[in-house]
Predict the structure of SDR family oxidoreductase.
Amino acid sequence: MTEELRYDGRVVIVTGAGGGLGRQHALMFGARGARVVVNDLGGGQTGGGGSSAAADKVVEEIRAAGGEAVANHDSVTDGARVVATALDAFGTVDVVVNNAGILRDVSFHKMTDQDWELLQDIHLNGTCAVTRAAWPVLREKGYGRIVMTTSAAGIYGNFGQANYAAAKLGIVGLANALAEEGRAKNIHVNTIAPIAASRMTETVFPKELLDRLRPEAISPLVGWLAHEACAETKGLFEVGAGYIAKLRWERSHGHRFGGTTDFTPDDVARHWAGITDFTDAEHPTTMNESLTAVQRTA
Ligand code: NAI
């Protein structure tokens, strides 16, 4: 057994922590010595309404267990206000867990502008807003841990979730770029794609599966990624039901045409099997490694 990982002296913001996965993350950090900002506007699953009760209740739970926490009831789209709560209450921020989210599932041909915009706003813009407000503090102190929350719906695509999938994969792009920008300042940025029972999934999965998908099964990965001892950055992980795995990009070895311009759609068609063959596949992780492929001559 290793020693318990602790967050004493660390200030952790968990967005959307009034329920579901975020609540579990907040309770875990609170129980392990962190000072926690429990953000949640307490709205409905599709983004309507608002109540301070959800976040307040989690703060009470953390305090009742001997931990330290404050509530913030702003939308993540007001990221500066979320981070201001951390600065006002605890003087700094060390960890941001971007978890808040809603769903508005609808097939693309029926999707309204509002269905699209609201999802981009809360998931992608909200994640950016909170992270951007915390960023100068993390840079200044030369330390930060950021955990983003994406979804298999974004990674793999899913019927009826174009708005959600686009926003969720946008978050992966944001995380990848921030991992590079944060590297020299000891700011690590990782992304999880959870799968767990919550109000978000209770109508999606069958009961037998929901019983296995405990929301508290996500927090151990978040805890590790948020810890100072964790060197991982720019990672993407699937997590749920006691399972954790890392994802990466895979690129086929590809086909190099003789010249750089003298080939036609017919040549592409002729070589399609080779272009899409994953024998000898590569796993680029940076822009530079991406460029090596086009610089190759054979
Ligand atoms: P949930 O609906 O139980 O919790 C989301 C929380 O975010 C709610 O408490 C809600 O009030 C809060 N929230 C919504 N909009 C907000 C805003 N603008 N500002 C602040 N708080 C806001 O859902 P769940 O399942 O706990 O989801 C957590 C995260 O995990 C979400 O980002 C979701 O997209 C993601 N996720 C969950 C999966 C699952 O299987 N449960 C699958 C893939 C991704």
Summary: The beta strands are 11-14, 35-39, 68-72, 95-97, 144-149, 187-194, 236-240, 243-247.
